[in-house]
Amino acid sequence: MLSTISNPCVRCGKERIVLKTWTALVGKAKLTYTDTACPDSDCQKVINDEILAQKTKREEIETKKAKDKEERAKLLASAKN
Ligand SMILES: [Zn+2]
User: Fold this and answer.
1) How far, in Å, is the centroid of ligand 1 from the Cα of 17?
2) 67: pLDDT strictly greater than 80
3) Full domain range(s) for residue 30
4) Which of 18, 28, 43, 68 is surrounded by the most beta carbons within 10 Å?
5) Strand 29-37, strand 17-26: pairing
6) Helix and strand tally (H, E) in the chain?
């Protein structure tokens, strides 16, 4: 089934182009994934940079969380002695 769902670029509003589609089995469900990109390569590059920046920020937060947890565990352990 080919669907033509409108998928405009969040930055420029141009219709995003489908780079590839693939299906994968997740549990018992067959899911279809679609990789899209903005037809404007400069625009897509900015989006990629933003995604990367968000990912980096999220990883930093996760790392900090894990570290805080570790520090708390250490404090608790030393408080017991
Ligand atoms: Zn765009």
Assistant:
1) 10
2) yes
3) 17-80
4) 43
5) antiparallel
6) 1, 2
pTM listed for this prediction: 0.62
Any domain includes 22? yes
Whether residue 9 is contained in a domain is answered as no
Question: What per-residue confidence (pLDDT) applies to 79?
Answer: 87
Whether 1 has a pLDDT exceeding 80, the answer reads no
Whether residue 34 lies inside any domain: the answer is yes
Please give the Cα distance from 21 to 35 (Å, whole number).
6
In a domain, 11, yes or no: no
Residues lining ion ligand 1 (Cβ < 5 A) are 9, 11-12, 38, 40, 43
Q: Which of 1, 44, 43, 42 is nearest to 19 (CA)?
A: 44
Taking the centre of ligand 1 as the mean of its atom positions, its distance from the CA of residue 76, in whole angstroms, is 51
Q: How many distinct structural domains can be found in the chain? A: 1
